[in-house]
Amino acid sequence: MKSRVLSLVFASVFAVILLAGLTSAASLADITVYTIPASTTHNAGSFTITFNLTNSGVASTLDYTASTITSGTATLSFNDANIADGSVAPVTETITATVTFGAHQSGNIAGTIVVTPTAGSAKTLAFSVPITSSSSLTVSTGSITKSTNSTTLTITNTGNTVLTNIALNSTGSFPLTFSSGTLTVASNSIASLSAGASGTIQVTATSTALEDLIDGSSTVTATSGSTTASGKVTLSSAYCEYNNLGSDLKLDVSFDNVEGFGDDTEWYAFDEIEAEITVENNGDYKISDIKVEWGLYNAETGEWVIDDSEKTFDLKDDEEETLTVSFQLDENLDELADGDFTFYVRATGEFDDSDSANDGDNTCVSSADSIDVMSDDFVILDNVEFTGTVSCGSEVQITADVWNIGDDDLDEVSVLIYNQELGINKEVLIGDIDSFDKEKLDITITLPENAVEKTYSIRFQIYDEDDDIFENENDDKAQFTGPLVVSGSCSSNGSTGTGKAAVSANLVSGGKAGKSLVIKSTITNTGLELATYSINAAGYASWANSAELDSSVVVLTAGASKDVEFTFDVKKDASGSNSFDIEVLSGNQLVVKQPVTVSIDKSSFFSGFTGNVIGEGSGWYLWAIGAINVILVIVIIIVALRIAKS
């Protein structure tokens, strides 16, 4: 009896547990935390939605088949089809749903995510993600030749909005006309193009527009409202109009940048170039009336910057002819701003031998060398002219063209004009200069009456708005020289160089190693006439790095004097007694060479007492004065100490 009761009890408990297990398998809580994108782009391809599921029952298999897309064309996939056991304690898992869709859609992608456990009720999450509107186009590229002057371009709407009134135009080396392909073109316009759709148009260049071109390109632009795209049509052709029959002619071309800032294949505006062209007949037959044509061609614009031809000549077999052509890049400067430059040469002739199967036929050979035309920020001087009567005491007008040969506009350009012998040191503000444009330099300068009759080199230096001299990519400075011939009305003193002068020197400040030392020199005209003196410091290199003069040219009437200051940058390791020479020249002849001795002291204490300067034959007493000063200072110190003790 007892055993039957126990069996019934156990059976009841098992049934209760089984029933509890069956009911707990369906214990999914609602979706409480989720992340949905605010928007997506039409060409993103996919986006993800994450959400949390909480299970309070036993492990369960999840079914998503009831999930649907209600707007847009897309598919749903999920990263997890099972949820862990939550019968002991609830568990929460994050599920990721991936929405995959095709490009060019607009509007929203919407749907409902449905999660159904093995047993129990389903949980749902609705979503709607707007697709951002985007308008975009592409235009393909194409190529043409002089004989096949038409090509097909493909235009594609790569956005997700319909494009209307798509206007077509072209710019570049040659004009293009547009006609229908799979897309209808009317009045250079396409009526509409659906999102994601594409079609073709026909583009054609007229034969006459291609006649003088070697190569080049034009850009086709398609525009609808603010949406635009472009593609390039390139021309491919040969410089020679007919084949080099039998390869009889051979060309060799070399360059020499004779004057300018570039090199043999890297040219600046106004560089003077020489091209040596050698034509050789490698064949077995005579070729007559050989004509050599050459030029610099810009493939970007389809224009010749320079082009020319040379004399005709004949060549027998195994003969050659060498021509040298010279040119300057001084025309059509605006065409140098941007481009793809090639120097072309071709030689054309006619077979002139009855034994040749090609007798009477034309032949041609060509060469092409790529040239870099530089356009970095740089300024040059051109057409420098000296006008007026260039005689002593006269006024000379200096004019020149100041060219900005760079891509950028320049502000506050100035030119320094300098010649030490003539006392010329003038800065002229030119002002702003636009890219590949010029401004005029125009200044009048008075020459000294006692200048020497000779040719002077006038230096010009060009500075930017920060007072820095212009430099190009090769570290060349924008400095130029021009010859000025002075002749007539010159005084005997200036012309013969027989001026007389006296020189004295005194210390102004300094005398310590590593510091500046300033010497004041007095120049006196001891002659009977006006004289122009050139002042120079020499022989200081062993103890000073440099010497600067506040005035390197002095013009004095008879008996007059003027002070000139010399500032020396004393070396850090200089010490003791050192010397230099003050040189005074008149008319390129040395008038006075005055030795000056300076004392350099590393300790810096006694340097102030000695005066540091002894001019030869005139300042020996300075040492005595310095010594007396030292003794006096020592005496004063001793007396002061004794008074203090008493």
Throw out a few tags for this protein.
Immunoglobulin-like; flat; 5 helices; 646 residues; 5-stranded mixed beta sheet; disordered N terminus; mainly beta; single chain; 9% helix
Structure write-up:
- By secondary structure, the chain is mainly beta.
- It folds into five domains: 34-132, Immunoglobulins (Immunoglobulin-like), CATH 2.60.40.10; 137-235, Immunoglobulins (Immunoglobulin-like, Sandwich); 245-373, Immunoglobulin-like; 379-490, Immunoglobulins (Immunoglobulin-like, Sandwich), CATH 2.60.40; 494-618, Immunoglobulin-like.
- It contains five helices and 43 strands.
- The strands form eleven sheets. It has a five-stranded mixed beta sheet with strand order 12-19-18-14-16, with no helix packed on it. The protein has a five-stranded mixed beta sheet with strand order 21-27-26-23-24, with no helix packed on it. Strands 39-37-41-42-43 form a five-stranded antiparallel beta sheet.
- It is flat.
The helical percent reads: under 10%
Apparent shape: flat
Mean pLDDT comes to 84
CATH architecture of the largest domain: Sandwich
Q: Biggest sheet, strands in spatial order?
A: 12-19-18-14-16
Largest sheet: 5 strands, mixed
Poorly predicted runs: 1-24, 492-498, 603-625
Fourth-level CATH superfamily of the largest domain:
Immunoglobulins
CATH topology of the largest domain: Immunoglobulin-like
Structural class: mainly beta
Question: What is the count of helical runs?
Answer: 5
Name the CATH class of the largest domain: Mainly Beta
Total number of domains: 5
- End-to-end Cα distance, whole Å, is 138 Å
Number of strands: 43
Instruction: Give the radius of gyration.
Output: 46 Å
